[in-house]
Design brief:
Blueprint: H1 3-55, E1 61-63, E2 66-68, H2 71-91, H3 94-124, H4 132-218, E3 224-232, E4 238-245, E5 248-253, E6 259-264, E7 267-276, E8 282-291, E9 296-303
Parallel strand pairs: 3-9
Antiparallel strand pairs: 1-2, 3-6, 4-5, 4-7, 7-8
Helix pairs in contact: 1-2, 1-3, 1-4, 2-4, 3-4
């Protein structure tokens, strides 16, 4: 056998192993980008979950285009999103697949370099015409390299199968956990809404009470009435008799005395009655009158004798 024939077989062996290497190299990139993205977003969600309640304790918060009524609610949503991303990472084997592909690629790359060096050393000691034993050793070297590459691929696929089974179990657990988290969130949200509604009702009641108190304070006090009766020397009064009470003035004939003052505010007032006797002498009678809300107060005025 010629050395050139062995070189052809070597190139085929290297091409076979390189094919495995290139496959892992190509498919590793997508999982690497996805893994970095998921972990970065999850870390941001964790940071938001910690900082939002501290930086925005009250007021609306918009997170990823969704409006929340408080920083605490937005923080819960961020933590749920981060947990969901981590769960999806485990369920879809993103990071673990990237790690498996990277490990397999490195092992196959080492295998290729080892094959190159072994063949270089072996080929350096061969002549153009290779005997049967030397050809057998060379072919065993090529076969071992291809077989080792296949074992690496098989080992990686077996690991993937085991992880997939665990991922299915993780998916069931993730659904259960997320359902529990959502139920808890809904309970907390309902509790917050009930408390807000209760606080709003209490505030409304307080406002109504304050408005009623202000209305009562601004409104004038209820008024009463004062009715004047005369006694004593009534016959002394001649002509017209004038009575003044709380700025209100009334006039009555001396023969038919009748005075009733309406809308008298509560409190002490001065009543002044003015008249004349038969000789034209002035008669002035003063008396203190107390107005009472919602009542008619009878006041007796004693006309003094001559």
């Amino acid at each position: 056998m010629q050395l050139s024939d062995l070189n052809v077989e070597y190139e085929k062996a290297v091409a076979t192993v390189n094919k495995d290497f290139d496959w892992y190299k190509k498919n590793r990139l997508g999982y690497m980008i996805a893994s970095w993205t998921i972990r970065a977003v999850a870390a941001l969600c964790l940071g938001a979950g910690v900082l939002l309640p501290l930086t925005v304790p009250v007021g609306d918060v918009t997170l990823l285009g969704v409006k929340f009524s408080s920083g605490a609610q937005a923080a819960i949503a961020a933590l749920l999103l981060g947990g969901l991303l981590i769960g999806l990472n485990q369920v879809f084997l993103v990071t673990s697949t990237w790690a498996r592909y990277a490990t397999a690629m490195l092992r196959i790359g080492s295998l290729i370099r080892l094959l190159e060096w072994d063949w270089k050393i072996m080929a350096g000691g061969l002549k153009a015409d290779v005997n049967v034993d030397e050809a057998k050793k060379a072919r065993e070297l090529f076969r071992a390299a291809v077989a080792d590459s296949a074992k690496i691929t098989e080992s990686e696929t077996t690991a993937w199968s085991g992880e997939l089974s665990k991922a299915v179990d993780s998916l069931a657990a993730l659904i259960k956990d997320q359902r529990g988290a959502v139920e808890t969130q809904l309970k907390e949200l309902q509790k917050a809404q009930d408390e807000a509604k209760k606080a709003a009702e209490q505030a409304k009641q307080e406002q109504e009470k304050a408005a009623e108190a202000a209305r009562k304070a601004a409104a004038p006090p209820p008024t009463g009435a004062v009715r004047i009766k005369f006694e004593g020397a009534i016959n002394r009064l001649q002509g017209t008799v004038k009575a003044v009470l709380s700025g209100k003035e009334q006039v009555s004939d001396a023969k038919q005395l009748s005075f009733v003052f309406l809308d008298i505010t509560p409190g002490l007032k001065e009543l002044v009655v003015s008249a004349q006797d038969a000789n034209g002498a002035a008669i002035v009678i003063r008396s203190a009158v107390k107005g009472v809300s919602g009542e008619v107060t009878d006041v007796s005025i004693a006309v003094p004798g001559a």
